[in-house]
Amino acid sequence: MTLGRVVGTVVATRKDEQLEGFKLLVVRTVGPDGVEKNSYVVAVDTVDAGVGELVLVVSGSSARMSTGCTDRPVDAAVVGIIDSIDLASAALAGARAQST
Fold first, then answer.
1. What is the pTM of this model?
2. Coil, strand or helix: which one is 18?
3. Any alpha helices (H) in 18-88, and if so which ranges?
C-alpha cells in the first residue's frame, strides 16, 4: 500500500468496456510525514474519494482484489480514505532534539 493525495480526475470517454462506470483519480504519492513526492498514478476509485483527500492506494494483484475490480484491467485502486496518521510524533521530536 502507498499513501497519496488525490490531485485530480481523468475523463476517458473511450476506454475498455470493463472500466465503464469507474471513476479514475490522479493520485500524487505522499510520504508518511505528509511530504508530497514527485510521482503520480491513475487509480480506480472504490471508496468515493475526492480531490484533496489523503488516500490508501494498492497496486497490482491487490488492486484487482478490490471491490468491483476483479478480472478487470486495473493496476491501481484507491481503497481507503485516511483520517489521520500517527508516527509517534513525541518519539520523533525527541530523536530530532538529540541529533542536533
1. 0.83
2. helix
3. 61-64
Q: Give me 95's grid cell.
A: 530523536
Q: 29 and 50 in contact (C-beta within 8 Å)? A: no
Q: How far apart are alpha carbons 76 and 2 in whole angstroms?
A: 10
Q: Which three cell numbers stand for residue 23?
A: 471513476
pLDDT of 93:
64
36 close to 17: Cβ distance less than 8 angstroms? no
Whether 79 shows a pLDDT value over 90: the answer reads yes
How confident is the model over 6-53, as pLDDT tens digits?
A: 999 999 999 999 999 999 999 999 998 889 999 999 999 999 999 999
Rg, C-alpha atoms of the chain: 16
CATH for 2-99 (1.10.600.10, 3.30.70.260, 2.40.50.220, 2.10.109.10): 2.40.50.220
